[in-house]
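We give its fold:
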Amino acid sequence: MSGGGASDEEISEDIDEEILTEEMGIWMPSSVSQQDALTLGLGPLQAEELELRKGQANDCLENLRMALSHKAIIYRQYFRSADSTWSGTRSKQEAHQCQLKINNYQRARSAMERLGMEETTLGSIYQEILPTELSIDKEVTEENRFGQGSDRLAWFWRVNNTNRGQEDTWMDEFYSWLKAKARWSRWEEELTLVRHEMGWTINWFKYHQKEWNRRWQQATRPGHQAFAYQQVMMWGRFAQEAEKVFNQCGFVP
């Protein structure tokens, strides 16, 4: 080409330098507004993409639930035993995996919003994911804490991401029942252990009373006899008071 104009090859090279192929975005029906899509006759394509985006969002939420569950298991197994370096590295890896799944979900949600999904559906089924909803469930880290009855799972644990109907209501009740059953089993186990600990405490007091009684009988010096007898009375009083208090709690040794 003459006259100082750029040749086709030079223009092509400039374009290739500005945008790499692997960095170019893939055009989708959601790339244009809904009004423009209707004008161009792309309404059916947008409707088809909307269904595909729903499936993508559902898959992302399922993967996020799996990642958070795995994170909770890892946290429970290695929280106290692992060294800080290993824990920090593993925590970063788990957080990175969760963030990737959240980014994929957010892209699918943004596409559904551009494709004209109803606000009520976005607000009930495909909600925004907040950072506070990604923390490890305290049911894993603090099993015996107070205030568990008022806890609620994050929304993506309580919905099946289809239609908010009877099935979702059933899922809410099912998750609540599972948590209540887990708490009941834990406290039932705690009650059994506490009852045994009451018996062990009384036996421990009686054991010391018996030992000091033996030393009192074997002592030859008045000072040793006085001190040993004082210990016999003290441990005996501990045993009597423990039996009295534990009996008031309904414990029968």
